[in-house]
Each structure stands twice: as structure tokens, then as C-alpha cells.
Amino acid sequence: MESKRISADFMRLDSLPGIGDVIYLGATWRHPEYAEWENEIVTLVEEGELEAEARLIRYPIEGDEQWYGVLVSPIRDIYTETVAS
Amino acid sequence: MPKPMAIQIDLSAINQLTEIVIRAGDLKASQAVQHLIQRYEPDDRYEPMIYGLSTVFRQGASLDQLAKIYTFPNKKLSVSFINALINELAQVQHGLILYVTPTARIADHHTLAITYQGLPLVSLRGYSKSHFTPGFSWAKKGFPNKLLLYPWRKP
User: Which chain B residues have a beta carbon less than 8 Å from that of A9?
Assistant: First the structure.
């Protein structure tokens, strides 16, 4: 079955201690719908640029829970050169 | 523990003609406007919470230097002079704030917020492509067209 695709900003590539490379996906209050895929492998997509598989986790930062995608695959380049008219 | 307040870059204290801000990715791509709107997000590591776009800024750094320091996976980087952004936004009665928002991987990570009537916008959702008017041409004429694209590619 194809994994859930979640739009992500790969400029938010980060590292969490003891966890590794992650992409920040926003606060849990902002994306309650992600709870359905918590701890599952999802595909993070920066449309037209990059994609990667990641395990969706909650992680507390400054006392608030945040969603992160823990990368479990290399980041794939899906860039296609199209220029806005 | 109270959250820290995000520090703002004093844009009046830097050389706006030479300082640059970069963002990974191709802002000339056909879907770039929509991507920017989607990527204008809150960062609740700070109190008050801030909103904006992830960018990289380091005072005095050139594009080459930033491209070497930070190995973005994207094939292209987009870059703008601070002065160009400020002028473009001013033409449509908007402004910008650059917050210092470092991450573990990007020490020079900054959040670029757009302001209107002096207040930071919490979303660009109202600025969809279909709603562009002469009063807000930033996203259509400003970012994608006036940002210089640097043909930097992964080694």
C-alpha cells in the first residue's frame, strides 16, 4: 500500500538528539490529522523538488509537542525544471 | 519554562544593497507561488509565536559561502537582496521582518515574515494566485520573478 504523502519544507531539515535526521512538520495542535499516521512511515514531499520516507513522531520542544518526520530513506531529487510563465 | 522571544534582525543596521537572503528550491518553478503560501508557517518555539518562511541569512556572507556551508538537497537555491525584497513589498504596502531562528542543522536559519500595516501576517492564505490584485503583486511579480536564481547544483 502506498504510504501517506505529507507536504513538507525540506529547509526544516534538522537533527534531534538520539533520534537523528528529521524534518520539522509543525505543532501537533496545528496538524491533528497527522495522529492517524503516528509512528508510521509516510512520504514527505516538497512538491516538484524533493521527497523522502520518514517515520512520523511527536517530540516535545519547549514544552509543546511537535510533529517530526524521522528520515528512513535518502532524500530523493524529483526536481523538474519548469518555469512559471 | 518560558519560551524565548524571537530576535529580529535590525534591517536598518545592515547594508540592504549587499546582504542577501536565500531559500532552498526553485522559486521560478511553476508552482512556486503556491509553495511559498503553503510554507509560510508558524514556529511555536517562540513566545509570541512567529510566522513566516524558512530562509538563511548571515550578515556579510556571499551566496557561494552559504551554498558551501549548508548542503541543501535541492538542485537550486533562490536568493534575493534584502533591498529588493523590501522595495518590492513596499510597493504594495507590505514590509518584512527577519527573525533569528537557528536550528541544529542550520545555524543561520531565519524566518522571513511579511508585515501589513506594521503587523506580521500569520498566513498568506489570502494571497492565492487567483486573488492577486494590483494591490498585492508581491508573490506574482516579486518573489518568483525578481529573485535571482543561482544555478547551483549538488556536487
Answer: 39, 41, 54
